[in-house]
């Protein structure tokens, strides 16, 4: 029997996670009273039970009873029940935005501000985050991307490192990404914008890639960037970082930054980290190709 405890911040995607697990054949129960969790696990573990895989949604809605979960998990270990904890996370800014969009009331906010409820929730769930086997930061994930990450873990059984990396190309004239952890400026490279025949193209086009990477400084920069990230990322994981946003910028976010972001993505493909590539400004002030 496999047990997945689905927990984390309200608004971070627990409902989506339970749906994915249900589609994968798990028997899912959300917000079960703590007093029934162990009994339910016993029934699922019974030899004649058809529920070999179960997923339990556990979060702040349990109130004071949430503290009982520590003892419940200890009992599962004693009885040799195999369980994993999936913790879904998101930044305060993203969570507040999601609550405003859905017009839902945070379980701990009541008549107070949402951000205060989020702060209280983080504090009360910290003990679960520390014990989590998988921590997924959904701040930069669309619903379909979250489903893909969950399927890697629970359907394809791929290795997961608890780190999700977003590679973002952008244009400095539109401002830097506010959530970037690492920012790299590639405006030192020759700009295809000033070359007739290249201005209307972007970094996804072969001609731009060949032009940008045709300069030795671009090749050297990419090699040094890859080497630095190969060193940094494992150390970020050791320190418990769950989300990393790598931003690469040029003037308009269409040519040089897109080319280098694509090249970095190619280097990181196949690694055990969750990966996402975004070209934030590639379509701004788009020039129609003829």
Automatic annotation (TrEMBL):
Record's keyword annotation contains Magnesium: no
Domain spans labelled RapZ-like N-terminal: 1-157
Amino acids binding ATP: 8-15
Pfam families registered for this protein in UniProt: PapZ_C, RapZ-like_N
PANTHER family: RNASE ADAPTER PROTEIN RAPZ
NCBIfam families found in the cross-reference section: PRK05416.1
Protein origin, superkingdom: Bacteria
Protein name, UniProt field: UPF0042 nucleotide-binding protein
Residues given in the record as GTP binding sites: 59-62
Alphabetized UniProt keyword annotations: ATP-binding, GTP-binding, Nucleotide-binding
GO molecular function: ATP binding; GTP binding
InterPro entries on file: P-loop_NTPase (IPR027417), RapZ-like (IPR005337), RapZ-like_N (IPR053930), RapZ_C (IPR053931)
Domain annotation RapZ C-terminal: ranges: 165-283
Database matches in HAMAP family: RapZ_like
């Amino acid at each position: 029997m496999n047990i997945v405890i689905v927990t984390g911040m309200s608004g971070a995607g627990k409902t989506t996670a339970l749906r994915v697990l249900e589609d994968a054949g798990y028997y899912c129960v959300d917000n079960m009273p703590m007093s029934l969790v162990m009994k339910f696990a016993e029934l699922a573990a019974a030899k004649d039970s058809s529920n070999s895989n179960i997923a339990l949604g556990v979060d702040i809605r349990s109130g004071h009873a949430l503290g009982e979960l520590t003892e419940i998990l200890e009992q599962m270990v004693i009885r040799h029940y195999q369980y994993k904890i999936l913790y879904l996370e998101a930044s305060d800014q993203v969570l507040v935005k999601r609550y405003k969009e859905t017009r839902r009331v945070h379980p701990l906010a009541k008549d107070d501000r949402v951000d205060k409820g989020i702060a209280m929730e983080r504090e009360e769930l910290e003990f679960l985050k520390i014990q989590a086997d998988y921590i997924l930061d959904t701040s930069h994930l669309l619903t379909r991307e979250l489903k893909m990450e969950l399927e890697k873990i629970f359907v394809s059984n791929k290795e997961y490192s608890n780190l999700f990396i977003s590679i973002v190309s952008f244009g400095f004239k539109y401002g830097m990404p506010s959530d970037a952890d690492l920012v790299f400026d590639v405006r030192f490279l020759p700009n295809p914008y000033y070359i007739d025949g290249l201005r209307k193209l972007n970094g996804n086009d072969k001609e731009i890639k060949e032009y940008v990477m045709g300069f030795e400084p671009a090749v050297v920069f990419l090699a040094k960037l890859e080497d630095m990230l190969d060193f940094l990322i494992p150390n970020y994981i050791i320190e418990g970082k769950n989300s990393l946003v790598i931003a690469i910028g040029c003037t308009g976010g269409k040519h040089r930054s897109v080319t280098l972001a694509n090249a970095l993505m190619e280097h990181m493909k196949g690694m055990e980290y969750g990966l996402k590539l975004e070209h934030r400004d590639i379509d701004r002030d788009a020039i129609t190709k003829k």
